[in-house]
Amino acid sequence: MLKWELYPAQDFEKYREQWDELNKFYYGSALLESRFVALLLQYFGNSKIKLAIGQSDQKIVVMTLLEPNTWGTVWTTFQPAQAPLGLWLMSPTLNQEQAIQSLMSTFFRTAILFGITQQDPIFISRPKQTLNLHTIDYISTARIQVNGTFEDYWSVRGKNLRHNLKRQRNRLEREGTTLHLDVVYQPEAIAEALSDYGRLESAGWKNVSGTAISEHNTQGAFYLQLLKTYAETGDAFIYRYFYNDRVVACDLCIIGNGIINWLKTTYDEHETTSSPAALLRQDSFEQIFSNQHINTIEFYGKVMDWHTKWSDEIRTMYHVNVYRWAGLAKLHKTKTKLTV
């Protein structure tokens, strides 16, 4: 049996060490470190979020941040758009359904549904469906295992990809365009590089949809502090790609446990005769393959056509729904949302 404790989200600061210990022991993801989570709470949190801690034999075995719907009948893991992974840390020896049912019976007696969002089967295997537990596909995502040399990796990419990028490089060279990859990792240089990213993204379709990073919006402030924080320990990279002295593509990345995570990417959408993002990718991957401390490139985004050209490894992330009553689960089984 689990013994649960429930705290307001503000108390997360008191339990950051325990959170990091759980992440390090079972997950090892830079995207689940307390410094990442603390900033999510700072910029996108609210007063309704709760920190739940479960112990077994006086040892913390599960921690999560939960957020209710308006009526308190549905609780889900706190999931801002900037978090690629659901904020649920659990020993893989636990049964998810039993853990959540015990939490519901201890603290959330009005809840009829609990949702655990954006789970990665690499960390926690997808549980089997039961009368009270259902899982839902979230997205397919890609990663690249950094094995061998870049030449080995590149030689087995598709002929069209290799030919197209070689042709683009040759044409740009004939036109007198110098290509250059710049890697920013110093904390004091992050702001300028992120400003370049924001200018590119704000000139494209994301500005129209209102999702672009800007120096003047909350998302921009979040990524600035996040990347500076990780850069202080050598765990943040901003890749900038130049045509002569002009930035044409930019990627934001953080590293942990040998994994480099691609957070966001943007490029100059006015470049229609070449692909700055693909050229950046080729040059940055070549550098990554020479880094003995990196063993995996993680994208954590919905698989696009370009992912399939660069990666041979695709997996499906998932959500978990745990219902108080089996009858409600049966009624809800055809829905894809985590709310009722």
Report a brief summary of the structure.
The protein is α+β, with helices and mostly antiparallel strands and 340 residues long. The chain has 11 helices and 13 strands. The protein has helices at residues 16-26, 34-44, 96-107, 150-155, 159-174, 190-202, 205-209, 218-231, 276-289, 305-310, 326-332, and strands at 3-8, 50-56, 59-68, 74-77, 88-90, 113-119, 133-145, 179-184, 236-243, 246-256, 259-267, 296-298, 313-323.
Instruction: Using the alpha-carbon principal axes, give the shape.
Output: elongated
Helix content: 25-40%
> How many DSSP helices?
11
| CATH level-two architecture of the largest domain | 3-Layer(aba) Sandwich
Structure description:
- This protein has 340 residues and is α+β, with helices and mostly antiparallel strands.
- The protein has two domains: 3-138 and 316-332, 3-Layer(aba) Sandwich (Aminopeptidase), CATH 3.40.630; 147-294, Gcn5-related N-acetyltransferase (GNAT) (Aminopeptidase, 3-Layer(aba) Sandwich).
- It has eleven helices and 13 strands.
- It has helices spanning 16-26, 34-44, 96-107, 150-155, 159-174, 190-202, 205-209, 218-231, 276-289, 305-310, 326-332, and strands at 3-8, 50-56, 59-68, 74-77, 88-90, 113-119, 133-145, 179-184, 236-243, 246-256, 259-267, 296-298, 313-323.
- Strands 1, 2, 3, 4, 5, 6, 7, 8, 9, 10, 11, 12 and 13 form a 13-stranded mixed β-sheet that branches.
- Helix 6 packs antiparallel against helix 8.
- The radius of gyration is 22 Å and the shape is elongated.
- The relative contact order is 0.17.
- Mean pLDDT is 93; it is low at 336-340.
